[in-house]
Amino acid sequence: NGETAIFCHTMAGTLCASFQDYVAVEKHARKVIQLDRKNQIAWEQFEHALYNQERYADMLKEVEALTKELPTARNCYVLAKALAKNQRNDIAETTCLAGLKLDPNEVHCNLGMAALLMMRNGDEAKTLEVARNFLNTARRECRPEAGPTLFIELEYLTAIYQALSGEPSFARLTLERLRIDNPDPSRYDKAL
Predict the structure, then answer these.
(1) pTM
(2) Residue in 17, 19, 43, 21 with CA at minimum distance from that of residue 32
(3) How many other C-beta atoms are found inside a 10 Å radius of the C-beta of residue 7?
């Protein structure tokens, strides 16, 4: 039965991800995608597996296929992330904006735009104002069912914004708290 196989491979992929066995996650996600090309969870598991294996060129190729198969605002963000990991920030920005045309309130695209803008012209007043607007939209639209990772990303980018806009004390407090709460604090150490 196809539905049973999809369910079993999806659960196996999730379990393998919890053990950080990303080769196995990739294998299970590929099987689900063979059975159901429109399975969003499988595509995201697949992208996550390639990302964690640092196979960014493969990730980009596969995520381009995802956005053709399922052209959603969320998938525009996934593609933008793959583009950024492949040093294509210019196209990543355009891709996030395309996602925001599909859904102006899509949290990931708003966070992606804020991050890309701050990386491009981080301390320019006009850029910071636009980045703040994207962060405010993301904050307004962020829902508990999105999970804690999205809220952590929002806090992290807000701290970066605060540092760039002349509020280093608030940024430092947020980053120190995130570092304490996170099992992999290196990202926050770098920002501090």
Answers:
(1) 0.86
(2) 43
(3) 12
**CA nearest to 73, candidates 30, 119, 106:** 106
- Per-residue pLDDT at 33 exceeds 90: yes
Residue with tokens 């002349």: 166
Q: Where does the pLDDT of residue 66 fall: very low under 50, low under 70, confident under 90, or very high at 90 and above?
A: very high
* Block residue for tokens 């196809």: 2
Give the separation between CA 166 and CA 123, rounded to whole angstroms. Answer: 9
For residue 35, give both structure tokens: 């059975």
pLDDT for res 191:
66
**Phi and psi, residue 88, nearest 5°:** -115, 55
- 147: burial class by Cβ within 10 Å (0-12, 13-18, 19+)? exposed
Distance CA 182, CA 45 (A): 22
CB-count burial class (<10 Å; 0-12, 13-18, 19+) for 27 = middle
Distance CA 56, CA 147 (A): 25
Predicted confidence at residue 122, as pLDDT, reads 63
